[in-house]
Amino acid sequence: MSKFKSLLLMFGTLILLSGCSNVEVFNAKGPVASSQKFLIIYSIIFMLVIVAVVLTMFAIFIFKYSYNKNSETGKMHHNSLIETIWFVVPIIIVIALSIPTVKTLYDYEKPPESKEDPMVVYAVSAGYKWFFAYPEQKVETVNTLTIPKNRPVVFKLQAMDTMTSFWIPQLGGQKYAMTGMTMNWTLQADETGTFRGRNSNFNGEGFSRQTFKVHSVDQSEFDSWVKDAKSKQTLSQDEFDKQLLPSTPNKELTFNGTHMAFVDPAADPEYIFYAYKRYNYVQKDPNFVAEEDLYKDVTDKPQKPARKVQITNANYKRHGMKPMILGNNDPYDNEFKKEEDHNAKEMEKISKSAKDENASKFGSKADNDHGGGH
Questions:
Q1: What's the pTM?
Q2: CB-count burial class (<10 Å; 0-12, 13-18, 19+) for 114
Q3: Pairing between β-strand 153-159 and β-strand 119-126 as defined by DSSP bridges
Q4: Contacting residues for 140 by C-beta, under 8 A, at least 6 apart
Q5: Cβ distance 308 to 243 under 8 Å?
Q6: Ranges of Basic and acidic residues compositional bias (predicted)?
Q7: Partners of 134 in the beta sheet?
Q8: pLDDT at 373 over 50
Q9: How far apart are CA 322 and CA 328, in angstroms?
Q10: Which tens digits make up the pLDDT trace of 80-111?
């Protein structure tokens, strides 16, 4: 009988999940997404078992101890065995769910194991768009991403305006991109194909259009793509600044050269405000301004000279970090990578310090709320 119940539960779960091929988180195409998929299915099955046991016991108790079948109320007021069971079982359930969850969450931060050297891509969100700079290949794309199959890709996440969340469901979970910060996120595609990526953190009226396509291709096809991209128009600072404006339409674009030749968004978080001034862009509330008047003052050509490399992020000077400026003719060599690693470590320290400070403030507030403050 128990085997029959187990088979029934298994087939029931399969039926429930049979339509999940169209649900991107269940259609994993990379190692990070695969571990995430396992964790989700493991949790679902575990919870289904719990629900099935509870409902079965509920039905048994209703039938066995119904008013019509019992002439008097129960007389048992204490049972050590039963009380031990209902305290121990929930603890076992929590442990069984928490161990794989914590392990998987920590594994997310580790780069996928691969014989191939990781490729670095700077993923920058601004103006409800995604900009992808390839420092080694010296090309940049907007709202489209091409990566080689079976090669880890280290995304260096940055935001130039609102906080966003970088998410490619079929390759792995999301990670936040914040102004004044550079956060590393390593993903890998195990298969060729086209996947969807997006910002999963609501950040304003353009949230729905902040999406991009991910093309996973063979290494030879990737090399051909890079060669073709180098024949495209060179990304000028004027063009980059114009693309930063929310008023500029979202299109899939490819350029020779990268924005890293003239700005490090994490080092100069005020850069985007200067770009707004260059094109006379003023943010207006669409709830109170007619649609045709939102962008009527925006100019086609810049009204101010291009901004020079600056550091307006106080943390850079405080932590001895340098802006990641890489000219289009400069090599992406070990010296530059050392500075990248140094900045990444300092960013981790800043992030950890901020978390500890917030935790300390929260603890102090809790003490004060309960009369325990000093």
A1: 0.83
A2: middle
A3: parallel
A4: 131, 132, 133, 134, 235, 254, 255, 257, 258, 259
A5: no
A6: 334-374
A7: 139
A8: no
A9: 18
A10: 888 898 899 999 999 999 998 898 888 877 77
